[in-house]
Every structure is written in structure tokens, then in C-alpha cells.
Design brief:
This protein has helices spanning 6-16, 31-40, 54-59, 63-69, 86-99, 114-125, 139-144, 149-155, 159-162, 167-189, 195-207, 215-222, 226-238, 267-273, 279-283, 288-304, 347-356, 382-391, and strands at residues 20-24, 46-50, 74-78, 107-111, 129-133, 211-212, 242-245, 261-264, 309-314, 320-327, 330-337, 360-365, 371-372, 378-381. It has 392 residues and is an alpha/beta fold. Strand 11, helix 17 (347-356) and strand 12 form a beta-alpha-beta unit.
């Protein structure tokens, strides 16, 4: 069992901050496991409902009466996006309980589609709900479970994939996961979007991991329009399958790249889309460097959010920072990613940091030692960098 750090945060929000928490994350990421652990020792008891089970949906035929009968219990509702009509009911119950002096710990709602759920719930539960995002297992959680970062990079952070008995079994699980999303989940969220085209786009993004989003090129390859590519990409971002990393925009007198960079968020899923089963397969593939870059960025953001906002920085002259972390509206930390045991820095990184007046400069690499590099930077391992961000 891998302990997820977000469990304590969910508990804290439920007991001291808000009546309801919406826990967002892709399928199979472990949301249900976390919710059941919280429910198992909730002081006043708990009830768990899964909106994919007909029996549980029938319990909510008269949702208001049923939920009000769960007096003081924590009610966990899984796959809440399948029952959007519940949000109005929840608002009335929460307001009545608040009036009776019961301010916290009423509902834990689990869902897979971030934008859709946030839109549905914000209209009914404004001021009554906190949103938390749960991603795959990150490097600190894997380290606590005695799992190495190389295994995490290859297999990704979905628990069933990460803990599989072999690399082959892990790859098979991820192939099934991809197939399930394309055949079952994506049509549910976007019935008019053809699964085959979405699958091709997902694979194309895996091949161009960390590249600038070029809608026209992708549209030409798929035989669709550029706005259609944008809708497809928006859906994958919403389902937390793809990250769109925006460029830093500021008033520096430089010609900046304006297109976002796009990553398949889980490295294991990216490798499965490319049919890469072993570490040797990955290292021998042209996307090895970009894959490691995306893996590092995703793990660092899991530890830095929400205190830092992520960007990348690139000028037309070649000055570049892989990950720029903003805090308080100002760039505070620059991170370069190198898949090399002896990383070196280009002049462009130092120039970019000087332009933005950034003093905290790091190069994340696969080694374990921490030591100084040129341009005022410091080489550091992914695990150590994650701890810096978590403790900042």
C-alpha cells in the first residue's frame, strides 16, 4: 500500500475548513482508496455511494430524503459527474446543517472531469466546497514506499501499474487503461468526439512530448480543423491526462515564444502509447529526454502546487528555462532538466535567469549528489528537489 500525501489534506479540509471537498483525478489514480480510508475511521460514521452502481443510484431516487437521513455521517459520492443534479440537493442540506451549527465534514465528492465538475458545483456550492487535485504517485510517495524513481519514470504513478509484478504486466495494465479511456470514458464526457481520432491525437502528443503545441500541424495529420484539435486537447487537459504548460509572459524586452508546451502527464502512459515496455526501450527512443523532462515537471508540480504556478520560458534568441516557478506574481525559481549523469548548462539558461533576475537556479538530473554548476546553478536529484519545494 502506498500512502498518498493528499489524504491528510482532505481530512484537514473536511474537519476545519469546508462542509464538502471535491477530490479530482483521473480514473484508477487511487481516489476511491483514499476516500474509503477516510470513511473507515470517520468519528461519526460514513456511507459510500458509487454513481456507477445501479443500486447506489436507486438509493438516491429521493436524494434529499436519503442524504438528510445520514445524520452527521460523512457521505462519500464517487463519480459524482454522473449525477450533476445532486449539487442543488447538497446545497440545501449543507445550508440547513450549517444553520444547526454543523459547519464541517458533510460530503466528500470524487470525480474525473475537472472543468465540468467545477462548473457544475461552483454554481450550486460556491463557498461551501474545496477543490483538491489528486495525481498519480509522486516521487516522494514512491520513495517512502521504497520504490525508486527510475521505476516510477518507466511505469508511471498509477498504483496498479507501478506495483505490477513485472514491466510486461505493468505495460499490459497501461495498454488496457488507454483502451478503456478511449472506448468507455472519453465517449461519456464527449460523445461527439470520435474515440479513434482522440487516440491518434494522444499518441501524437506522446511522440512530441514537451513540444510546442502546433494545432495546424496536428489538425493536418488528423484530417480535422485546428479548433477541433483544440477541443480534443481541452478534453484531455480537463481529464488530467495531458498538461498544457503555458509560456511565461512578462514585460521583459524580449521576443518570447507564445505557444504552450504539451506533455502527456503520466510518464508510464506516455511510454505505453509508444509501445515502450522496458527502461532500455525508453532510453533507446528519441523521446527519452523529453519523457524525463515531463516526468520531472509533473513530479515537481505535485509538490509545489498550489504555492507556485508553473511556466516555461523561451525567447526567439534561444534563452530557455524548462520550468519557471512563479510565486506572488514574480518568477522565483528556475529549473532545468537534464537526462545525464554529468549535466552541463547552455548559456541560454544563464541568460534567461539573468533577464528575469532569478537567483534560485537548479538542474534536476538522475544522479544523487548535489553540487554547483556554471551560471549560478546547482545540480540536484529529483527527490531532493521535490523536498525543497515541499518544504519551501
Amino acid at each position: 500500500m502506498i500512502e498518498k500525501n493528499i489524504e491528510s489534506l482532505v481530512r484537514q479540509r473536511l474537519t476545519t475548513v469546508v462542509p464538502a471537498v471535491v477530490l479530482l483525478g483521473p480514473r484508477q489514480v487511487g481516489k476511491t482508496t483514499v476516500a474509503r480510508k477516510i470513511a473507515a475511521d470517520w468519528p461519526s460514521g460514513a456511507v459510500y455511494l458509487d454513481m456507477e452502481r445501479p443500486a447506489d443510484r436507486r438509493r438516491l431516487d429521493d436524494a434529499d430524503a436519503y442524504l438528510r437521513a445520514q445524520n452527521r455521517k460523512l457521505v462519500v459520492i464517487d463519480e459524482i459527474q454522473r449525477a450533476p443534479g445532486l449539487f442543488e440537493v447538497l446545497r440545501g442540506i449543507i445550508d440547513d446543517r450549517r444553520a444547526a451549527g454543523e459547519r464541517f465534514g458533510h460530503f466528500l465528492l470524487l470525480g474525473s472531469a475537472a472543468l465540468d465538475l467545477m462548473h457544475q458545483s461552483s454554481e450550486s456550492l460556491a463557498g461551501r466546497v474545496a477543490y483538491l487535485e489528486m495525481g498519480p504517485v509522486n516521487v516522494l510517495e514512491a520513495s517512502a514506499a521504497q520504490l525508486g524513481s527510475e521505476t516510477l519514470w518507466l511505469r508511471g504513478g498509477f498504483p496498479e501499474s507501478l506495483l505490477a509484478q513485472s514491466d510486461v504486466t505493468s505495460a499490459s495494465w497501461r495498454q488496457d487503461f488507454i483502451r478503456s479511456y478511449l472506448e468507455r470514458d472519453l465517449p461519456m464526457f464527449a460523445p461527439r468526439m470520435p474515440a479513434q481520432a482522440l487516440g491518434r491525437l494522444w499518441t501524437m502528443l506522446a511522440h512530441s512530448q514537451g513540444g510546442l503545441l502546433n494545432q495546424a500541424r496536428l489538425a493536418a495529420s488528423l484530417g480535422v480543423s485546428a479548433p477541433t484539435v483544440m477541443r480534443y486537447t481541452d478534453l484531455m487537459v480537463d481529464l488530467q491526462l495531458v498538461r498544457r504548460l503555458m509560456p511565461w509572459a512578462s514585460n521583459v524586452s524580449k521576443r518570447l515564444v507564445k505557444a504552450p508546451k504539451v506533455y502527456v502527464r503520466d510518464s508510464g502512459i506516455q511510454h505505453a502509447l509508444l509501445d515502450l515496455t522496458t527502461t532500455d526501450d525508453v532510453l533507446g527512443h528519441p523521446t527519452a529526454g523529453p519523457s524525463y523532462e515531463g516526468f520531472v515537471i509533473e513530479n515537481l508540480m505535485a509538490c509545489a502546487a498550489p504555492r507556485f504556478k508553473p511556466y516555461f520560458y523561451r525567447t526567439q534568441d534561444g534563452a530557455e528555462i524548462d520550468l519557471l516557478l512563479e510565486s506572488g506574481g514574480k518568477p522565483g525559481m528556475a529549473i532545468e532538466v537534464k537526462r545525464s549523469s554529468a549535466p552541463t548548462l547552455d548559456r541560454g539558461f544563464g541568460t534567461a535567469c539573468d533577464d528575469l533576475k532569478i537567483s534560485q537556479r537548479f538542474v534536476v538530473y538522475p544522479g544523487e549528489d548535489t553540487y554547483p554548476l556554471r551560471h549560478g546553478a546547482q545540480a540536484i536529484s529529483l527527490t531532493a528537489m521535490a523536498r525543497v519545494l515541499q518544504d519551501d
